[in-house]
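Reviewers asked in the last cycle whether our approach scales beyond single polypeptides. To address this, we selected a multi-component target totalling 578 residues and predicted its structure end to end. The input consisted of the following lines:
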Amino acid sequence: MKRIGGIEAGGTKFVCAAGTLDGRIAERIEIPTGAPAATISRVAEFFSKHEIEAIGIASFGPVDLRPASPTYGFITMTPKLAWRNFDLVGAVREATGVSRIAFDTDVNGAALGEQRWGAAQGLDTFLYLTVGTGIGGGGMANGQLLHGLAHPEMGHIRVPHDWTRDPFPGCCPSHGDCLEGLASGEAIRRRWQRGGESLDAEHPAWELEIEYLALALANFILTMSPERIVIGGSVMQRVDWGRLRPRVQEILGGYLQLPAILQEIGRYVVPAALGGDAGVLGAIALAAP
Amino acid sequence: MKRIGGIEAGGTKFVCAAGTLDGRIAERIEIPTGAPAATISRVAEFFSKHEIEAIGIASFGPVDLRPASPTYGFITMTPKLAWRNFDLVGAVREATGVSRIAFDTDVNGAALGEQRWGAAQGLDTFLYLTVGTGIGGGGMANGQLLHGLAHPEMGHIRVPHDWTRDPFPGCCPSHGDCLEGLASGEAIRRRWQRGGESLDAEHPAWELEIEYLALALANFILTMSPERIVIGGSVMQRVDWGRLRPRVQEILGGYLQLPAILQEIGRYVVPAALGGDAGVLGAIALAAP
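The resulting structure, written as structure tokens, was:
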């Protein structure tokens, strides 16, 4: 039986799945992200067991999505040096022998997965964010994935940094105290010398985390006017949504007189529904004929 | 001869024009924004001299653009109290007798004008900003004006406030030191006790202005990935674009390896081309059949 392959290419692991167009996964594997050649070889080995007619790749980045570019399909400016300027689409095509390869960012893939089968069903303008080791964002505007010049890199916006309460300088190699530099899982680990999973609910880490995330959410709402914001990622397992949402309302200051924000924010800022499968399901959706 | 009416409804003045669908203006008038009833009465008097088949209104806001809403066509949360919760579309329809009224934000109107006849021709994902008495933003994503939940209010994002260099607390009634509170023409006037038009080019006001605008532009680029950013408004007449653009590049820190940003930013962050007529031409475009 012909299947669609999905690859969620992450900086920590590659999730591969052979699935169908209605969002069912027949088989799935997780491959730790190692050197590019060895990793792609294991990807190809997995898909060789299935009759795959097309593969969708939802990749960490930044990536080059411009079809006319000589480096289309490449991972470009990643801090993971072995993967910088790596031709991911070309390598997957060569190793698997599958010619039809769709390609987008990991977060645009996850956004598409949530829109087909998860927490953003029926919406045509929404955002998907992931707050894990890093922070990324994607989504749709007017019924199509966000591309424009290239693709969003929402994790790297600047938000006010409260130096008095938070002297940590931020840990983004490119920007220091951008959102990812202040509020990613890696930022929590470096600031407190312990991972977020080991910090209890009353630790001051979480109040700071909520502040930075709420500032970012308010900025995204004011910039894009999304119909919903869906948020996934490991850090969100520990964030108290019951404190995050009112803080977003406070920061907006009643300026947007919209029921979705004033009364129904519990249905407006919501957790991802597909969990760990959002990315790979989105990758499958990217390759839909 | 049948004409299309355009109204750029601003907090300071209403610009009305009778024009054609190819962007030519037959007659134009500016009406200082007074009390709602008197202002609308003068608008109707102007249009009564023309055979108008439809009117587009590009309005200051926030406004209610949701067609199914009982307050569709209203100005909602403006600090101009006489206009708060005012049924602008209803009042114009009643006063002019013209039934076909299109309605959007002033900045979405201006964005549409720039896309048809100005600095954003041929683009389907771009932003239009105006930096004047206030700061507003609109634009298109994937070929349609930005709406989503309601409409963008980009002037109200938070950017890092440099309290050491800039103890001014900001002047936005809703948010204090949001972008508009720090970088609008009104913020310049309040911070320095003089309007920007009277501050010479070496005044420290301009370095601060460039910093806040560059932080905001970087955030918009990272969030939306626009193909271009077009900026109008009175404050931009005084800002040194030759310093603004490199500062945007510095803040992005080489993270986006894109020629448009690294080499061709002079064609990426550009002045509005339609000047004072962008809004009213956009209003006419909104009403295009």
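The CA atoms of residues 128 and 230 of chain B lie 5 Å apart. We regard this as preliminary and will revisit it once experimental data from Aim 1 are available.
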